[in-house]
């Protein structure tokens, strides 16, 4: 490991296969002389009704330049980990000399396992919040070296904004933030409020009201002194909340009867998706969600050889052969099948193959998509899922 102040792999170390499990490097010399062309696929061993598949851009960057072909489910796709017949779906398929990818398996899986876990939870939070927006506040709960990845995955999954400076830069948006309690402690609450109310752009003027006093009375005070603000924010520790939805109802009532109906309410602080509906019903307009997204359970992907020199072969518990994923655009029936064989829905005819080639002989086959475009795909599919749930 290169010398540095922080325990984090460099880009070069990852590309060179140093961020790998040791058994790959120890057996590489045994494999290299074989020169066999393998097909390796990545599937999930966990049955999930749907996940939001992300991390593919980093995988593409890692594999670009290696003499292999790669196909994948597009990033930001919401999809089950099994087809309609209960068989594991390949999210990525790679073909080439095994020595080209052997030492990179650990990093490939790491890129998609964690990112997909975060984006999946972010989409679940999006569904819970809809139509209210939420901002991802979670990077302080994880290693700062991966903060851009966390924010990107959360944004693709449905966060309307992210708090991280580097994450927002990677996404191509402005970072979102209000004020920390420390500013109220250092400057005094009213002075901090005044600065934000008079200096922040319209739409972002948010006053944190729970540093010293009762939330209801502080909300009234903030609104009366600074009626131009856009939001009041409550970040009260759970130990002091009591009936949190009832506190929100009181604040909303007191603001409304005093003519401050345009001032919105934002809440944050250890929120989980299960709490959001009740808070929405109570009158919350916006949410800050952090730990539950940033520390989301990773998706358990695995990589396996399924073909060697054109011969289907794999370990027990897996399905051999180079495969694609096919979906009926009309009824949604999904099935795996051999890669170049057409699949037909018994009711609606030919099905659509879902794996798209992203690398051909080491070169990208399409330009990079920015996070906003990928997010659009996620949101569209999330809305379709929500409509299905309503039915």
TrEMBL record:
An annotated Gene Ontology molecular function: nicotinate-nucleotide diphosphorylase (carboxylating) activity
Top-level taxon: Archaea
Pathway: Cofactor biosynthesis; NAD(+) biosynthesis; nicotinate D-ribonucleotide from nicotinate: step 1/1
Any one Gene Ontology BP term: NAD+ biosynthetic process
Keywords: Glycosyltransferase, Ligase, Phosphoprotein, Pyridine nucleotide biosynthesis, Transferase
Domain Quinolinate phosphoribosyl transferase N-terminal: 21-116
UniProt xrefs under Pfam families: QRPTase_C (PF01729), QRPTase_N (PF02749)
Domain Quinolinate phosphoribosyl transferase C-terminal: 118-304
Reactions the enzyme catalyzes: 5-phospho-alpha-D-ribose 1-diphosphate + nicotinate + ATP + H2O = nicotinate beta-D-ribonucleotide + ADP + phosphate + diphosphate
InterPro entries named among the record's database cross-references: Aldolase_TIM (IPR013785), NAPRTase-like (IPR053190), Nic_PRibTrfase-Fam (IPR007229), Nicotinate_pribotase-like_C (IPR036068), Quinolinate_PRibosylTase_N_sf (IPR037128), Quinolinate_PRibosylTrfase_C (IPR002638), Quinolinate_PRibosylTrfase_N (IPR022412)
Keyword S-adenosyl-L-methionine attributed: no
E.C. code: 6.3.4.21
Protein name: nicotinate phosphoribosyltransferase
Organism: Cuniculiplasma divulgatum
